[in-house]
Amino acid sequence: MTKDILSISKVEKSYAGKEVLGSISFALEKPEIFGLLGPSGAGKTTLVKIIAGIEEATNGNAAILGTNMPNLQQMKKIGYMAQSDALYSELTAKENIMFFSALYGLKKSEIKRRIQEIIAMVDLEQDMNKKVADFSGGMKRRLSLAIALMHEPKILILDEPTVGIDPVLRRKIWDNFQELKASGTTIIVTTHVMDEAEKCDRLGMIRDGEMIAIGSPDDLKSETQTESIEDAFLYYGGVLHAN
Ligand SMILES: Nc1ncnc2c1ncn2[C@@H]1O[C@H](COP(=O)(O)OP(=O)(O)OP(=O)(O)O)[C@@H](O)[C@H]1O
């Protein structure tokens, strides 16, 4: 039996009896950039937290490489970047990277090998010795991304990674996502941004806790006979109708 990289099977989640995810199922079989697209409150963060093993599904399973989450061993294979940055503001950027890399079990030599490459990718070379307290929102996002990448995870889960990042750097970061995918990393990314959605290999469209459509951006547009991902989303949500 081949093991899917990620298998989501009838995942449901309720908080205090209120359902926020319906019965969600999908699988990622090979490295790809999989986008989760949906309006605020649709359930994207809840779903990625279940995949990352931070939240447990109320019903159903989320399995990584055939092992149900949450599972400590599998969590080491994951890089997770939360929506709000979990950084130590009294430490410098470098100290934050060293701290979190050590938590992931990276040796000093590995940290030394990775750090230059990663900070160049997120364009923070000049800011490594500054305290995070003096960072802008976009700089904190970039540092969080660097930390999620340090242990070379097989699966990278990014919750709105480019919020507050300017378009030039955003493009550079997306180019890096493509390179990571080419080297075998699977990337799951939540976004509201339509031009980012277009860059994903496949998209899962989420609305009110339900997966309303799944497919490549081109397939979703051609299936709905629409010109944009935004219109395709509205079509699947029942707001826009075919001519
Ligand atoms: N810990 C919690 N307790 C109760 N309700 C929660 C909790 N976390 C999320 N919710 C609710 O679940 C629903 C989905 O939230 P979620 O954060 O997953 O949405 P989202 O699609 O990521 O939105 P956004 O794009 O704004 O981040 C919302 O109605 C939210 O209020």
Automatic annotation (TrEMBL):
InterPro entries: AAA+_ATPase, ABC_transporter-like_ATP-bd, ABC_transporter-like_CS, P-loop_NTPase. One of its GO terms (molecular function) is ATP hydrolysis activity. Gene3D superfamilies: P-loop containing nucleotide triphosphate hydrolases. Residues 6-233 form the ABC transporter domain. Transmembrane segments: none annotated. Keywords: ATP-binding, Nucleotide-binding. This is ABC transporter ATP-binding protein YbhF.
